[in-house]
């Protein structure tokens, strides 16, 4: 081996060694950070997440998809509260709200198609309009009287799709609406808390990246099922704004719901979310009491989106919750529960 060759090999070895050392250092730093977080006092350590069970039902939709439904609370209650969960979540995301209301109100919670325990739908049926149709069929089957609709993120969009397709239900059957951490459109313009230039690049490459992951969903899912420190940190940062006080048990609970959502489902629904635009349908909600809640640090459906909804609904009550991110119903359950009880009182007057 010549001197020049030995020098090149040495340089290459040094680069690889430095890179390996960097990766090892980053891994140790990540584990150290997660370890420190998990050692903090955890107020939710004994909370029975995933253990609140209602009376299980199944809704077979008009296009043949079986949806998992749970009915809770007294059957003879004069008002039903219907919970519609968000993207990559399931009905368990309403844990605190179900716990708070189940003794006094009839509750219907459901897993949206392809989420939770509901059946997978074809990719072409992963649309917000189809979710609105599912909600209409759910009301017909499991809600015999007046109701209040509560939607978080994609669940709020589902309610908007219902308003667009079945406006006659609002004011008669549907007596009130809560829209939590959601948007009426233009999600493709959000910054995700990133600098404008970086955000623009992310939005440009994201559709192709998500589509590619979807095509390799089974392979990707095999690496997701065990969970990871990275997934924990991402969920904590995006879902809870990296709050220093958020419970590690709560973060694990949220991350487990996200992880249980197949990568193909994430890819199937992504275009529908980016193309969602129901601002013109919001006037349908104007006759009924409406509560709008958003965390002031929500990067997925930022406060500007809730303000746009409120501008279209001048009689609605808008609440921006300080130091709160996207998973507001889990991060600030007391605030959300109080808002829902206030909405129910307005409906029952």
Tell me what the structure shows.
The structure is a single chain. The chain is α/β, with parallel strands linked by helices. The protein is 48% helix and 13% strand. Helix 2 (95-101) packs across helix 12 and helix 7 crosses helix 8. Mean pLDDT is 83; it is low at 3-36 and 194-203. Keywords: Hydrolase. InterPro entries: AB_hydrolase_1, AB_hydrolase_fold, Carboxylesterase_BioH, Epox_hydrolase-like.
Write the layout of secondary structure elements.
Blueprint: H1 3-39, E1 55-60, E2 66-72, E3 80-84, H2 95-101, E4 106-110, H3 128-142, E5 147-152, H4 154-165, E6 174-180, H5 196-215, H6 217-224, H7 229-240, H8 248-260, H9 263-275, E7 290-295, H10 303-312, E8 317-321, H11 328-331, H12 333-348
Parallel strand pairs: 3-4, 3-5, 5-6, 6-7, 7-8
Antiparallel strand pairs: 1-2, 2-4
Helix pairs in contact: 2-12, 3-4, 5-9, 7-8
Organism: Nonomuraea montanisoli
Keywords: Hydrolase
InterPro entries: AB_hydrolase_1, AB_hydrolase_fold, Carboxylesterase_BioH, Epox_hydrolase-like
Record keyword descriptors for this entry.
single chain, 349 residues, alpha/beta, Rossmann fold, 8-stranded mixed beta sheet, 12 helices, 8 strands, disordered N terminus
């Amino acid at each position: 081996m010549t001197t020049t060759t030995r020098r090149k090999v040495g340089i290459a070895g040094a680069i690889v060694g430095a890179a390996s050392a960097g990766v090892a250092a980053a891994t140790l730093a990540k584990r150290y950070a997660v370890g420190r977080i998990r050692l903090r006092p955890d107020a939710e350590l004994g909370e029975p997440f995933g253990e609140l069970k209602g009376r299980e039902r199944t809704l077979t939709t008009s296009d043949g998809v079986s949806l998992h439904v749970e009915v809770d609370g007294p059957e003879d209650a004069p008002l039903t509260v219907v919970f519609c969960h968000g993207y990559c979540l399931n009905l368990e995301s309403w844990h605190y709200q179900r716990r708070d209301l189940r003794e006094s109100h009839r509750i219907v919670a459901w897993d949206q198609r392809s989420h939770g325990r509901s059946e997978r739908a074809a990719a072409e049926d992963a649309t917000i309009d189809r979710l609105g149709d599912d909600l209409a069929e759910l009301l017909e089957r499991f809600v015999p009287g007046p109701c209040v609709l509560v939607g978080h993120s994609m669940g709020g969009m589902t309610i908007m799709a219902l308003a667009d397709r079945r406006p006659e239900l609002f004011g008669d059957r549907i007596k009130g609406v809560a829209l939590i951490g959601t948007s009426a459109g233009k999600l493709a313009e959000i910054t995700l808390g990133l600098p404008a230039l970086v955000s623009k690049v992310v939005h440009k490459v994201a559709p192709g990246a998500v589509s590619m992951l979807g095509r390799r969903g089974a392979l990707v899912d095999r690496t997701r099922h065990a969970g990871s420190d990275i997934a924990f940190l991402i969920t904590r940062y995006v879902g809870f704004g990296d709050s220093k006080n958020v419970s590690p048990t709560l973060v694990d609970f949220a991350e487990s719901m996200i992880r249980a959502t197949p990568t193909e489902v994430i890819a199937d629904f992504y275009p529908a979310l980016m193309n969602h635009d129901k601002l013109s349908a919001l006037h349908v909600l104007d006759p009924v009491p409406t509560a709008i809640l958003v965390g002031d640090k929500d990067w997925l459906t930022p406060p500007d989106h809730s303000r746009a909804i409120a501008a279209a609904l001048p009689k609605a009550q808008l609440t921006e919750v300080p130091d709160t991110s996207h998973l507001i119903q889990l991060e600030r359950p007391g605030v959300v529960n109080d808002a829902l009880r206030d909405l129910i009182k307005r409906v029952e007057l």
